[in-house]
Each structure stands twice: as C-alpha cells, then as structure tokens.
Amino acid sequence: MKKKLWGGRFSKPTDNLVEEFTASISFDRRMYRQDIRGSIAHAKMLAKCGIITKSDSRKIVSGLREIQKEIENGEFEFTVAHEDIHMNIERRLTEKIGQAGGKLHTARSRNDQVALDIRMYLKDEIGEITGLIPELVRSLVRLARENIGVLMPGYTHLQRAQPIRFAHHLLAYVEMFLRDGERLQDCLKRADVMPLGSAALAGTGYPIDREYCAGLLGFRAISKNSMDAVSDRDFAIEFCAAASIMMMHFSRLSEELVLWSSQEFRFVRLADGFCTGSSIMPQKKNPDVPELVRGKTGRVYGHLLSLLTIMKSLPLAYNKDMQEDKEPLFDTVDTLKNVLAVTTALMGNITPDKKNMENALRLGFTTATEMADYLAGRGLPFREAHEVAGKVVSFCEKRGMGLEEVPLEKLREFSPIFNADVFEAIDVRSSADRKTSPGGSALVEIEKRLKELERIHGR
Ligand code: ARG
Fold first, then answer.
1. Can 168 be counted among the known catalytic residues?
2. Domain match, 124 and 163 both
3. In which domain, by residue range, is 76 found?
4. Are 350 and 406 within one domain?
5. Active-site annotation holds for 26
6. What is the pLDDT of residues 130-175, one digit of tens each?
7. Are 373 and 425 in contact (CB under 8 A)?
8. Does residue 287 share a domain with residue 150?
9. How far apart, in whole angstroms, are the C-alpha atoms of residue 414 and residue 389?
10. Are 379 and 417 in contact (CB under 8 A)?
11. Number of domains forming the structure of the chain
C-alpha cells in the first residue's frame, strides 16, 4: 500500500476500486511538462519571497528537471495510487530529494495547480493548431490558383443555380478557416490568465508574488478572484466551441468532396493514396478520408456538450466532477490537429474534372436568368421575359442541349427580339465574370483575393 500525500487524517487505506475510479493519471500524465514548468516557477517564487530557502528551491528545481527526463526516457513509474500527475510527480520528487520535496506544495493546492496546467497546455496547443492553419490555407489557395480557369455550377438547394469559378468555391472555405483561426486566437486571450496562487479556493496568507510567477510562465495576466480561478473551465469550453465550429467547416468541405467524387457528380478525382477499396466490390474507390472527417465532427461536438454538461450547476469552487474535463479536451485537440493535417494533405491530391463540371453547367441552364435579363434589356417586361426564357429551358431540357446551343433562328421563334449578341449574354464564363461586385465570382475579384492571400500566407 503506497502512502497517500494526504493520508494524515485517514486510518484505513483507500479501497482499490475507489483508487482506480478516482485516478486521472492515465490521461492527465499528458500534462507532465506543464506541471513541471509550473512547479519550477512556483519553487523559484517561494524562494524569492523567502518562504523556502534558496537551497531547497534549487534542489526542487533540479529534482523536477530530472523527473522530466525520467518521464521522457520512459523510466518514470506512473501509479494510480498517487491518483494524478500532480501527486505522481510530487511523490517522486520527495523520493529523490527528501524533505525539501515536501516544501514545494507550500501556498499551493492541486486546485490551482490543475487549472494552471490545463491553461498552459491549452495555450501550447492553440499555438500549434493555429500554426497549422496557414498550410491549410495555402493548399486551398494553390488548388484555386491552378484551376482558376475551371467553371462549375454554384448551387442553392443543391440545385444548379449560377455559373461560378471552382476557385471561388474553394476560397469560400479559406475565409471560413481564417475566421476559425481568429476564433482560436481570441479564446487564447482568455486562457492566458494565470490561476496559480489561488490555492484551494481562498488564496493564501503566505507572502507570495503571483506576478513574478506569471512572468516566469509567460502569462499576460493573473486571475482576479481566487474562487473563479479554481472553479471555472469556460476557457476550455470556449476552445471546444471554436473547435466545433471549425469541424463544422471541415464537415461541409468533406461532404462536398464526397459528393463531387461520386459517379453522380464526377467533379473531382481524389488520388488513389487518399482512397480505399472495398473488400467485396472490386469497382469501388471510397472517399474514406473526407467521410471520416465528417464523422469526427460528431465526436468534437460531443466533447463540447460533455464539458458544458460537466460544468452545469456545479457549486463553487472546485468539484471532483471537473476532473472529467480533460479527456474531452484532449481528444478535441488531437482530433482537430489530425483533421487539419489530413485535410491539408488531401487538398494537394484533388484533380477537378473540368469537362464534367462545365457539362453540368451547360445542362443546368444556369444562365437562364441572363437570358431573361437580356430580353428585359431589350424592352420586354421582365415577367414576359421570364416566361420566354422558361420556354427555351423546357425546349432544351427535352433535347438534352444547353441554352447556348439553340440556333438564333430557333430562339427567334420564342421571341423575335433575340439577336446574335444573346450568346455573349448567356455565356457561362461571361456570366461568372460579370459578377464584379466586391467578393463576387468575377475573375478580377478572385484574382484580387488570391493575390492578397498569397501575399499574407505565402504560396
Ligand atoms: N486530478 C484532479 C483534477 O483533474 C486534480 C485536482 C484535484 N483536487 C482535489 N481537491 N481533489 O481535477
């Protein structure tokens, strides 16, 4: 039976089942680096403030550095008997340096320690995640640039609506992912507040220097209320919310790739290396990667809901329920990083099928509005113009031909005011390029945004 760090008031050992049930070491060991960094800063602060001796502080710091090496070399023995990462490390410290180790926890509680660790962990991870976004942006921008000449139908209600450029569609996702990055940066601001020094909940009477610790650990501010500092996890919830929104964007892009790569659309081909086959149907080439990204969106949403539910109605301050915050948070981080990396790679492995996209455009009669506008421009009331264009569409539909394939003589049977210049009006390319309003689908507008993106994020 291992002796507990808090064992003083207990006369019976912890039940094995309880030990297993209450331990978090299997997952919170992931925060060992943050825990050690935090403890080193705390020990230095204690010595600086004369709460422990300089010599004890030095022993603690070097002991902690050795422990970090032990963990990284796989030599550290994690045990549920010491419940969590905080006590596993502290116990080992005392084993290594003796009495001085017992002084590290002066003016501190696991409650402010765990809040500190999670905040540091999240700060590190948000840095990594936002660091991956430019590469994703570049992969989309490259695909858009290489295929700037490709037109396709833009959809509403999943019905062919108006001609657009493939690049315009891709750049819509770039805007979404850039906002996702901003959202993560924004939640970083609120995670970047140091809770250490709040102790269990009320603060401490020791003459500590919280600003000094915050400086050592690179926090922009210290928390202003000790009870708030140890009892809220809103910063983690905020992160999961930002991650969920980003996953929502990934799921929409993925869904389009699944649709577009289907035999029904045949708009894009995904490289073989990014697809899998079927064990029974030899003809199959399945878009597993985007499908799985779509599916993983569900688990990230689930984690957000878990965190919200764990925190719901908890009385202040710390409650053990809050130990359940870590697994959803960690899995959100892992999933988001994986999805970012795999989607970035996938974007480099997509070939649009120009012919099929433009064929869909032709048979989608996506310039019927232009035809009506053309007639209206020549004096026909818009209602009548709409009627005429509708009849031409119906004529084409029956014959499987595009609007632009109807000869002028035939068009004149629908309305005598048709002239040869109608073909310019209903050309899909000129239709897309006439949308020159800022942010529109015209080539000049797309070029403008592409250049901007290439300048800011590189090629
Ligand atoms: N393992 C705990 C957690 O993750 C650390 C804080 C424990 N504090 C306490 N008073 N039992 O929440």
1. no
2. yes
3. 15-106
4. no
5. no
6. 999 999 999 999 999 999 999 999 999 999 999 999 999 999 999 9
7. yes
8. yes
9. 8
10. yes
11. 3
